[in-house]
Amino acid sequence: MSMFAVLLPGVAQKPANFFNTKLANGLEVLVVEDKSVPLATVEITTKNGSYTESPEFNGLSHLYEHMFFKANKDYPSQEVYMAKTRELGIIFNGTTSEEKVNYFFTLPKNNWLAGLKFMNSAIRYPLFLPEEMKKENVVVDGEFQRNESNPYFPLYMAMNKALWGDLFSRKNVIGDHTIINTATPEKMQAIKDKYYWPNNSMLIISGDVNHSEVFAKVKEIFSSWKASGFDPFKKWPIPEFKPLTKNDYFVVESKNARVPMFMLGWHGPDTRNDRPATYAADVFSFILSQNSNKFQKELVDKGIALQTQVNYQTLSHVGPIRVIVVPNPGNVAACAQALKEQIAQWDSPDYITDEQLANAKRQLEIQNLQEFDVTSSLSHSLAYNWCTADLDYFYNYVANVKKVTKTDLQNYVRKYIKGKNYCAGLLINPAQKDQLKPETFWKE
């Protein structure tokens, strides 16, 4: 029996090995006990990311993530910082996405307390040394350039600009070259002063630890971290993304593109306004990405397309829906037509079978349970869910996925996809333009 099998409908049930508390300063603390391996992960997540970035700050949440692993008050240079990671046996990393930044240390279980103190130094007392920033500006911009070397990156960026318009920076995690290369310690401090507060963060300690001991030490170490005295998202509200007002068709040319690629995008549901639809979106996307589905059979199996993919990203501020199709280079026009015809059928009663629906629910449940096998990975998932929704969303995820019906899938398609304004892009090599005549593909 899975640990979710006893969930009551509509009631959040956290697993028995999860323990949580909240400090007086607002810092949420979650401990996940797992004695299977002698390791512990100390992770902190903050509600920050590209959705907080106006154009002049675009990419700086990610740069801040890099500066987290540099000098701070207690470890005054990166060399001293790195020496401490080696001493404690720490494997460390951080990630930045649209609505979340997280930092984590995985280390031997006997060092968890030292890791907790090390985390306290890094999160509360960064120095943002100018000489370290100059080096890291180049490193982060190098990551950007590596992304740009992907032949399909221009299509992805063009789609984001089409979907989000003048709020593009709020969805552009990678940032802007100029903003990254000219970033200053003052801008890092501005980000810290807005978002890096205990009442906007959650500390997760997972692995071979005892929650009572952890709670006591967290209180001892982190209670002196003063709360902001304000809600950052009330003081600096995230602007609402405007609905698409028309269909937008575009062609992107790249000399690096070996084969064409279609990408279609819609504004999907989010966890603030339509949580039930987020579960339907996950189920629908999973089904349409399986080889047995009609979408795959009509495009890939018939040789019209080489690959198809349907994605939805769970977010609190408009989760995007994306369809990616790599057409057979000899059948690009036919693929465009077939793609439109298939989307028009997505809400048909027989487009998805009962068997496919049941299998999707089961596979999503298995994927969810597999996250519990590695507590360090589980911590990352908990961080993402806390930032984009809340922990109840995570605890009740499988129970809510199991409730999804074919009618729910139809309603999801009708509310967010079929007949709704969307963006459609085609990536081609310039040498293919005259032959393909892509401007004819999307005529209404």
From TrEMBL:
InterPro entries (UniProt xref) = Metalloenz_LuxS/M16, MPP/UQCRC_Complex, Pept_M16_N, Peptidase_M16_C
A GO MF annotation of the entry reads: metal ion binding
Keyword tags: Hydrolase, Protease
Q: Which residues form the signal peptide?
A: none
Domain Peptidase M16 C-terminal, first and last residues per copy = 183-364
Lineage top rank: taxon: Bacteria
Q: Can the keyword DNA damage be found in this entry's annotation?
A: no
What sequence ranges are listed for the domain Peptidase M16 N-terminal?
A: 29-152
Keyword Hydrolase carried by entry: yes
What processes does the entry annotate via GO biological process terms? proteolysis
Report the PANTHER family cross-referenced here. METALLOPROTEASE, MITOCHONDRIAL-PROCESSING PEPTIDASE SUBUNIT ALPHA
What is stated as this protein's family in its record? Answer: Belongs to the peptidase M16 family.
Report the protein name in the record: Zinc protease
Organism of origin: Paludibacter jiangxiensis
**Where is the organism placed in the taxonomic lineage, from the top?**
Bacteria, Pseudomonadati, Bacteroidota, Bacteroidia, Bacteroidales
